[in-house]
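user: Here is a favour to ask of a fellow structure person. I have my own habits and do not want them to colour yours. Could you put it straight underneath, so I can go through it closely?

assistant:
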Amino acid sequence: MARISDETRRDNEAAIRHVMDRLLAGEIPAGSKCDIKTLAAQAGVTRTGFYPKKNRDGSPRPGPYQHLAEEFERRLAELRETGVIPDPRAAQIERLKEQVSGLKERLAARDEQIGGLTDFRERALSQIAAQRMEIERLRDALAAPSNVRALPNSSRASAPYGSCS
């Protein structure tokens, strides 16, 4: 790979800074994200310039635009810490994650409520069945010859909710 001149590097850095400002302001091209890949593509430089390199002896050396990548990541992190997400897709993902979390909580609360109502219904049906069995037992005892006698009906009183027959 050929070395670039100082003038080309300055021009590239200016283009990168310009694109960086646009991306962090939320001007994300369609189908892209607010990341190094988009930064490099929009600035017209190779992405490899943003990452560290190795000398021939194996020692690390910074990439020509690595300082700009670090600045971009730092500024992006600062924006996220303040609650600003410049990437509309990322903001939508965060909003949807929060919405899903809220819906899961509501679903758990409803499941708990349904469980309680199901238990209540089962208890109520058991009580109704037990009461019906007791009424039938008492009617059978009244019909059979025994020492059980029916109470006299009052002519003026009536059951407030109707008969139990």
